[in-house]
Design a protein that fits this description.
Nuclear Transport Factor 2, Chain: A; 5-stranded antiparallel beta sheet; 14 strands; alpha+beta; about 325 residues
Length: about 325
């Protein structure tokens, strides 16, 4: 039984209403988002009537408060892959939806967990990620489901009975939870018989879940053969500038496109053009005009986009004609 989606009062909010018309009419999307996320107290008139007909203002306010509890103070609005990225002290949120009506009121608003590496305080963000991973493990190891880990506002959207049944069905089909790992845009839950992804997570001040989106993980497709991998890597490194559309959105959420372009350009400038690609252990050896790099991980998603890619330079080989020459070089080393 595949339940493709579980929304536990997710942060994906949909809806808006009246306010100071003169101000709202001049609002841009960026200004509307910044006002919403930075305000000490949000106002109902910032949302359209249709929005609030779908999600109550109280629910919206509670969820945004839980975002602040989880991630700390809102710092600024940035961008990632042409989408707004909210930078907090202990994390980031990708703004997946933020549309305005003619009066500048929000008619849709949605978020997804962004890369922790771009938080104002990356160390604090990593600490928050570890905390959430521990809570996810506790939630999925409880049998029956421990409802004390879920905020009451969450249970207003999904009944305790439905949640208990759903978690039991996941356990029955996928087995016991084995591991929780921080992954692109959220967390990867590994069970005995499969994996699920957890995203859009928020907590209240007591560490209870107020937002959680679950879905079965998309399987990563292994590259079919060494020849196929060699062709893909050759094409990747011979394209100048590198074609970043060949990387998955999840990969690009962690690595900025400008950083990827800069890395490939620097490799090309320092090592020259790619000459050949050969299998090397469990990976591949890339030989350039002036050196070599090893690719230790290369995976693609079901759409053929690169989802995992790790490479490192190969240290140059050093040889000496005589033992005396080697001793002389060693003796000249500092320290």
């Amino acid at each position: 039984m595949h339940r493709s989606l579980l929304t536990l009062t997710t942060i994906a909010l949909m809806a808006s209403t009246p306010a100071q018309a003169q101000t709202l009419q001049t609002l841009t999307q960026a200004k509307a988002i910044t006002r919403l996320l930075s305000a000490p107290e949000i106002k109902a008139e910032w949302f359209s009537p249709d929005f609030l007909a779908q999600v109550s203002f109280e629910t919206v306010a509670a969820q945004l408060q839980s975002v602040s509890t989880t991630y700390g103070k809102f710092i600024r609005l940035d961008t990632i892959q042409d989408r707004p990225l909210a930078i907090y002290e202990r994390g980031t949120l990708v703004i997946t939806a933020a549309s305005l009506d003619g009066q500048g009121k929000l008619t849709a608003f949605g978020t997804a967990t962004g890369p922790a590496s771009m938080a104002a305080d990356p160390a604090a963000a990593r600490g928050e990620q570890a905390k959430v991973a521990t809570l996810l493990e506790k939630l999925f190891r409880s049998d029956p489901l421990d409802l004390s880990l879920i905020n009451p506002s969450f249970l207003e959207q999904a009944s305790a009975e439905d949640l208990t049944t759903l978690f039991a069905s996941i356990r029955a089909e996928y087995g016991a939870l084995q591991d929780v790992q921080i992954a692109d845009g959220g967390y990867r839950l590994t069970f005995e018989k499969g994996q699920w992804d957890a995203t859009s997570i928020s907590l209240d001040g007591q560490g209870r879940f107020t937002g959680l989106l679950l879905r079965p993980a998309e399987p990563e497709a292994a590259v079919g053969s060494s020849d196929e991998a060699a062709l893909q890597l050759t094409s990747l490194f011979k394209t100048d500038p590198v074609d970043v559309s060949r990387f998955s959105p999840e990969f690009l959420a962690e690595a900025k496109t400008d950083d990827i372009r800069a890395l490939f350009a620097s490799i090309r400038a320092q090592f020259g053009t790619l000459q050949k690609v050969d299998p090397q252990g469990a990976g591949w050896r890339l030989t350039f005009e002036k050196g070599a790099w090893d690719v230790t991980s290369f995976k693609v998603d079901v759409q053929g986009r690169i989802s995992s890619f790790f490479l490192r330079p190969v240290p140059p080989e050093v040889s000496y004609k005589t033992l005396a020459e080697a001793r002389a070089v060693f003796a000249a080393l500092p320290g």
